[in-house]
Amino acid sequence: MELDILMIEDEPNIAEAVRFILTREGWRVDLHPDGAGGLEAIAQQRPRLVILDLMLPNRSGAEILDDLRAAGDRELAATPVLMLTARGQAVMAGGQADAVLSKPFDNEDLRAIVRRMLA
Amino acid sequence: MNIRSGSSVLTGTRIRERRLVLSRRQADVAREVGISAAYLNLIEHNRRPVGPEMIARLAKVLDVPADELAEGREEVRIAALREAAVHPAGAAAAPELEQVAEFIARFPGWAELLVAQSRQVRALERQLVDLSDRMTQDPYLLTTLHEVLSAVTSLRSTAAILAEEQDISDDWRQRFHTNLYQDSRRLSQTAQGLVAYLDSFETEGNAATPQEEVEAWLASDASRTGALDMLVSDAARDLAMTLGRTLEADRAALPDARLTKAVATGGAALDPVQLAVTLGLPLDLVMRRLGDLRPEGYERAGLLICDASGVPTLRRAASGFPLPRPGDNCALWPLYQALAMPQVALSRVIVTPEGRSFRALSYATRSQPEGLEGPVLTTALMLLLPTEDEAPSDALLVGPACRICPRPDCPARREPSILVPQASVRTPRS
What we know:
heterodimer, A: Rossmann fold, five-stranded parallel sheet, 20% strand, globular, B: 430 residues, 434 Repressor (Amino-terminal Domain), 18 helices, 10% strand, extended, disordered N terminus
């Protein structure tokens, strides 16, 4: 079955809450808890959307996004990405993310953005 | 030209002002001091130099601390006020720099207040920069704030789920309650740690720069006991401990008693180079010890040490030679000439813009602490001794730092001075 969303987030409680919210909307969600191996997880699972935390251990979300956009596989490189950042870090996410959501966020805002990106 | 005229002007004016404050007649003061009224009149009108002994006698009669009348204190205040004038906040005010000496002499209390407030402003600015640096670069703060944000994000999403979502199973409800408990606990612990960390900023906020803290420490007795209590910043304590180890090693290699005896035996005729030969010890060690102990004949000595980049690693001001802010020095100081001529002792009389003369002994050493393959390190020292002698014709005219140096045609000028009209300033070197 096709994976709708891959969330790369090292905070387990945030990941669990987000997964619960989005799963209830009917989307299939998987988690990857570390910056290391993030790109490989995307390439392997081919999600329709990646929710990517900026501050990750071992490899930052920005680095993963750079690598993703530079991937030789054009379909993989074009994977939509929703970046989760602190408010002041939005600039660091660069222009490569399709959407940016500042922490802490409203659950309804999260749902609305994901709904729009997966439409 | 009498090169001492600048400093004498200040002293004479101050003596006169003090006498007038006390409503004392010139003749009465002169009689008590043991000079003629005419001679005192010449002194007060800056037509006669005033030596330390005369200042001491006048100070006693005028019931004022001797250093209140001394030129060194005057110059320190002048330098401090010039530093204040350099501040961007003072640019629009266009303070009358040519009248700074008169201002100090006529309104010593106001001058003191201005100097104190200027120093406080600079210290606060420094603190602000430090805080800003920490806010943007401090790894602890960044990590802690990220931790706070993560906990708040989790709390908000989880609480919203529990409050807004319908039909949550007991298992999930229990799980989210557990998450809430974990996150709230993590948040409180992180917040406490953050508050404690921010509190530490406040306790470190009194000093200007770590180097200035260390200079104040060096000038106190605490440096001889090794007590670091008066140092408030970690950086200053690190600097002082490193310096303390060097001083301790120097004192072991050349104890106070041995140095004092050698200086007393040799008398004034024995210069530091001869002293080193007599003692059979390296010149740089003897110079450091003279600057540290300040034995008889060296009571007013100052010592500056810099590395090969020219950055001072130790600064102890000589009497009457106020030092500029750290990192802003005169390129003509013989200290820097010594860097280019290691192992050669250079002696030169230097003259400050105020007309004070100093015998400057400069010397540089080279070492390779990591062996043949390691880098060559050069260290230069300059021992400064105030001299009352008339400066020779080849005396080197130096300043404190370009920004607060009044010499308009200095060949080493690298930036304009606030003390001279811009049109008359030589173009900075390319």
